[in-house]
Amino acid sequence: MTSIRFTFILATGLALLLTNTVHAGPEAIQFGPRQHGRIAVPSENSLSQATTPPSRELALGSEIMVVSGYEPGASGTVKVHIDRPGARVLLVLTAYESVRWQISSTPRTSIAAILTGGYYESSLESASKVPAYRMDLPYSYEKDNANFHELLSKLHAQFGVERVHAFRGQYRLPAQVSIAEVDAPHAALTLAGTPARPAPVKLEFKLRDSSGVPVSWTLSGPVSPNEAHGYSDAPIAFAGSTGQRQYLLKNDSLTRIDHDSGEETRLDLPSDFPRFSWAMDLAHDSKRNLVTVVSLGGEGFLYRYDATQRKWMDYRSLNNIDLYSLTYDRSADRYIAWSDRGDLIFISPTGDVLFSRNVLAQLEGFGRLYDRGNSRTPRLRLVGAGNAVALLYQANHQILRIWHYDVSRNVATLTYSAS
Q1: Backbone angles phi and psi of 263, in degrees to 5
Q2: Is 133 exposed, middle or buried (0-12, 13-18, 19+ CB in 10 A)?
Q3: pLDDT digit string (tens) for 159-196?
Q4: Residue 71 exposed, middle or buried by CB count within 10 Å (0-12, 13-18, 19+)
Q5: Alpha carbons 154 and 150: distance in angstroms, whole number
Q6: How sure is the predictor about 33, in pLDDT bands with cuts at 50, 70 and 90?
Q7: Which terminus of the chain is more solvent-facing, meaning fewer CB atoms within 10 Å of its CB: N or C?
Q8: Which of 19, 29, 18, 122 is nearest to 78 (CA)?
Q9: Does pLDDT of 341 surpass 80?
């Protein structure tokens, strides 16, 4: 008996020792608390959503109302109440995340149909049996955004819609959204967007097309609008009174091309210079015959090349300021750069910052060119002429927008829009 009791005590003590060894100490492995996800419970008010294209007539005579966001709140439910007695409403609901949409309306409000869209499928409930459709519609919680323009474009393609009458957008949608009034008319709510205005000053400049031919432009567009020209996206600078020499960034190096002979010369950096990495643009200082290059690699660098002596002069760090484009303004004898943050940075011929202006918020319609927060700020080409700066947006080899910026007044104006 004594032997059996000793064996039992020894085994019990060993088990306790192992138990304490496994669970003791700050490195012990633990799982988090049990969580319960949102479980969609079918409702008697659930609406089935057709995937067939809705009728174009649904938008006729209807107020187009959009509720959109990235995600719902913690409950996952967004209640939308429409109070438009006597009005006919086409309701558009979009979100990236799945939403449980619950729709209600006042007795004399007529909802012609409900459209849902977003990355994930959402459920839809309404006490009134309203036609509902699931469509390929993007979310957008702000009007000045490429996604909102895409949403309008798709509504236009399906229904001929030119504008939205009410828009309620937030990143995280509130639990309750009520719409009792239409929004005040605003260009941002329309498919056309912000219209161009007359140029406040006269400014004519040359843009070289993809063949290197100079084309005359003004702030209001091309001087000869009936002539079709394509414009290269490649950073190129022309030197000489007739542009007989070209400098371009090719394979992350600077290359000189002689116009007459067509000879190409690669201008390699000295061994003690940082290598080009994401070289973005270049400009030619016609007073000093210097070529200046800006890059994004590392902290970013500004390089200067003496085209007369045919040698690299110097370089300097940009201290993590990302410059997307660069131009030289001969009349003011300075460079102007466009940054990823929407800054115009004015730079001396030696590469020193003179001053900078953030103009992003002043560029009407600029937000429609990209999805802010999910993509980079678009690159703008620049033309400088003293107190006037032209900012050009180019895509698909075409100039689509021009803004004029008045340096002294710190005012920007949209003066040209091709679409």
Answers
A1: -70, 135
A2: buried
A3: 999 999 999 999 999 999 999 999 999 999 999 999 99
A4: buried
A5: 6
A6: low
A7: N
A8: 122
A9: yes
